[in-house]
Please model this.
Amino acid sequence: MAGLLTSLESLTVRLLRVPPRPEFPAGSEDFAKVFRAARGFLIYRMFQTAINQVSFLIAILFFIGIPLGMARGLGEERETVAFLLSILPYLIFAFYFVQLPFSFLRAWLDYRMRWYIITSRSLRIREGIVTVHEKTLTYANIQNMSIQQGPVQRWLGISDLQVRTAGGGGGGPEAEGGDVTGAMHTGYFRGVDNAEEIRNIIASQLRKRKAPGLGEAEPAPEEPTPGESTPQPDLAARLSAAADRLLAATGHQTGESPRPQP
Model:
């Protein structure tokens, strides 16, 4: 099963021209660490998909008698409509079994196409394959980090790390478990088995520095204006010492005025 999903993944990535991995943010030369979703997240997504598919099948079985009853009630005078209604359940079942493997492939790709990158200046989160979503958060804007874990996640040993930045609203699709595109000021490290470690790494980098801004380079030291001499803090002391040596050479002590010659 895993081999088939891997082959379908490679085919899908080639067809949709998805980059194999995200680029590192600017200024990540000194420190960069990559994290992926844990294996338990794949089990979690497959479990969610199975529940959804069973619910879909139950709904089909519950409502499948409606078109059949309508077809029998029309009688022979409307044979064409009755025929279409009678084959509608078979079409619905065919659609269900056709989409079934693709729903599990989507869950597999949701697990495989997640990238979490931590650098010395920012965080980058990328997910998705049909529509690729990528978000970069700088340390200068991070306000809060929290770990979320439901009962099933706790059983699988995974959790979600939420990183909220300045300007992030309270509610929104992502607050209810949506994707990275839900709240524009919130990022999620979903399905990781080392959320505490990731939070500690981010906190350590946050203590070291505050990033100057998204995509900005480090501020360069100010250059002196052309024609303007660079001030030297010990220039006055050197001039005073030179004056003292000059007065000593002429036979006068520092601080005494020369006496007039008779």
Q: What stands out?
A: Residues 145 and 199 are 7 Å apart (CA to CA). The first strand starts at residue 32 and ends at 35. Helices lie at 2-16, 39-63, 65-74, 79-112, 151-156, 195-208, 235-249. The mean pLDDT is 77.
